[in-house]
Amino acid sequence: MEQRDIVIVGGGPAGLAAAISAFEQGTTNICVLERDVQLGGILNQCIHNGFGLHTFKEELTGPEYALRYVKRAQELGIECRMGTMVLDVSPDRVVTAVNERQGVFSIQAGSVVLAMGCRERPRGALNIPGFRPAGVYTAGTAQRLVNIEGQMPGREVVILGSGDIGLIMARRMTLEGAHVACVAELMPYSGGLKRNIVQCLDDYGIPLLLSHTVTRVEGKRRVEAVWVAQVDESLRPIPGTERRYPCDTLLLSVGLLPENELSRGAGVELSPITRGPVVDEHLQTSVAGVFACGNVLHVHDLVDYVSQEAAAAGASAARYVQGSDDAREADKDVARIPVVAQDGVRYTVPSSISPDLMDDKLTVRFRVGNVYKDRFVSVYLGEERVSHRKKRVLAPGEMEEVVLKRADLCSRPGIDRIVVKLEEE
């Protein structure tokens, strides 16, 4: 069996940032396992700009952003095995994988970083009545067809769901000569970034139909039309509001799911809300020595935040194999304070903190469950409010964050919980 200090599952932006960070932390015996034939992950097909504004202070396309990390990993000589599918990660950190060169092989890792990313929710999860004709794609599949394969999925398009990929593909399909009739969104708010609504829909006159859904797909061999209806407060179609849209293509942008089959196999505890691992302040999961970052942990809106988070996970994984007391203490029964999401906040990452083990400052990221205007993001340490910051608009499509200070926590012994919530005043 091979031996590596750190094995990173996934060679996308999260995996590469984690590998580079771990290497720079002093742990060089690293192996990145990537199932695709090239590094970079989903960014390779995201040829639009808007990446890197936080990380590099300039606007890059997805491939340009990924290439910066690929080149850095190559400069450091980090081992990356492409075309390699990881089959299993055991609780004692044995990683089993397969590729055409080695066949099935195993690596005993000192620590493991899970960076598998996420996948799109398929049509089968939506229960749309009708046949299963050609012309129904997830938005990401259509993006790959257009940007990588150079093929057009169709010419007359309806998009269900207003996630960022769907919004971006509305613009992309329009630029390639297709007609996008509408983007229908089940919820009363968009699931994507405000800038994408403006730049991808408003600028091209594509209507966004909030509180609408597709109720039926016509066509047996190929999509011929879809029916779109308004929904009520219970998200049920309202009779009499149906409208028929002739089309040959239906794109689905109805949510992303963290890719956590390997996490389950390793015995990692998963959050019922994010469907990603439950982690502590070091981004360590419930299994000692196994860390998680990026979209496999929770779905991000900006890749810059993925890179920041992954760098922290990589550094933590390196400290773990180096025998750092802080990293190893997480194996033991140390006092932990739960981070509780309340009153509009859906979840937080991390979900528990040990003040004695955290850095001087810790960024806690979260999402809200609805659109809120003129609300305060408040942080309570026990019953005491220590932060109260006003936000003009908070939306589910945009990630928010608060910063906790170690000094604040350590100066208040006996805190039973940390609460992040929204308040009106």
Summarize the structure.
The protein folds into three domains: 1-119 and 256-332, FAD/NAD(P)-binding domain (3-Layer(bba) Sandwich); 122-254, FAD/NAD(P)-binding domain; 335-425, no CATH class. Helix content is 22%, strand content 33%. The chain contains nine helices and 25 strands.
Describe the structure.
It is a single chain. By secondary structure, the chain is of the alpha/beta class. It folds into three domains: 196 residues, 3-Layer(bba) Sandwich (FAD/NAD(P)-binding domain), CATH 3.50.50.60; 133 residues, 3-Layer(bba) Sandwich (FAD/NAD(P)-binding domain); 91 residues, no CATH class. The mean pLDDT is 92. The protein has nine helices and 25 strands. Strand 22 and strand 23 form a beta hairpin.
Count of helical stretches:
9
Number of domains: 3
The CATH architecture designation of the largest domain is 3-Layer(bba) Sandwich
Main beta sheet: 7 strands, mixed
Q: β content, as a range? A: 25-35%
Q: What's the alpha carbon Rg, rounded to whole Å?
A: 22 Å
List the uncertain runs. none
**Text of the CATH class of the largest domain:** Alpha Beta
Give the structural class: alpha/beta
Distance between the termini: 59 Å
CATH T-level topology of the largest domain: FAD/NAD(P)-binding domain
Please tally the β strands and state the result. 25
Q: Helicity range of the residues?
A: 10-25%
Mean pLDDT figure: 92
Shape: globular
Q: What is the CATH homologous superfamily assignment of the largest domain?
A: FAD/NAD(P)-binding domain
